[in-house]
Amino acid sequence: MRERVLGPNHPDCAQSLNNLAALNNEKKSYYKAEELYERALNIRRKALAPDHPSLAYTVKHLAVLYKKLGKLERAVPLFELAVEIRQKSFGPKHPSVATALVNLAVLYCQMKKNQEALPLYECALKIYEDNLGHMHPHVGETLKNLAVLSYEGGEFEKAAELYKKAMEIKEEEMLVMGGKATSHHSSTGDTLSIKSAFSHNMYFQHGPR
């Protein structure tokens, strides 16, 4: 109906396509959702400003869907675009930008491109620390991600140190929430913990937000 009244390239049509895509995604009709999100993205790229929230919404959901479908190469430019949109919307040092950087880093790790992921995690860590403090859970999660990368790169002592810092933040978080903190691990214990996690192919990254 909206296409007939407003024309196929009107932003309101993109909203309808987004809604249908989300519905198909919930029903696990992923390829239909992909088609609808792609149509919505094409409209919004032409009709909206490059930092418009509606464009960001479609970019994010299509990127996540590509990732779910294993189309990782197609997801990369969308996750990169998500970083650019957040930088334009909030400034380059905003925590939201850090989260977008982490999302892109997670994707690179899945593609076995750890060297591309490393500077993204490091940049995200700096942003989180500067904005949220050195003991924030996001800092701890990013440190664990960096620990895994260091371990995979054969830098075992560095991995152990990063993991130890991450566990200290986690224990502090548990205390604040009223939980019981465990004693700090030794460097050897940290390395073994990372090895155990890695052997089960367990990564600690944020999911997309």
UniProtKB/TrEMBL annotation:
Coiled coil: none annotated. PROSITE patterns: TPR (PS50005). Transmembrane segments: none annotated. It is found in: Cytoplasm, Cytoskeleton. Pfam families: TPR_10, TPR_12. Keywords: Cytoplasm, Cytoskeleton, Microtubule, Motor protein, Repeat, TPR repeat. SMART domains: TPR. GO terms for biological process: convergent extension; determination of left/right symmetry; kidney morphogenesis. TPR repeats lie at residues 56-89, 98-131, 140-173. SUPFAM superfamilies: TPR-like. Its main location: cytoplasm. It comes from the Eukaryota. One of its GO terms (cellular component) is ciliary inversin compartment. Kinesin is a microtubule-associated force-producing protein that play a role in organelle transport. Belongs to the kinesin light chain family. Oligomeric complex composed of two heavy chains and two light chains. This is Kinesin light chain.
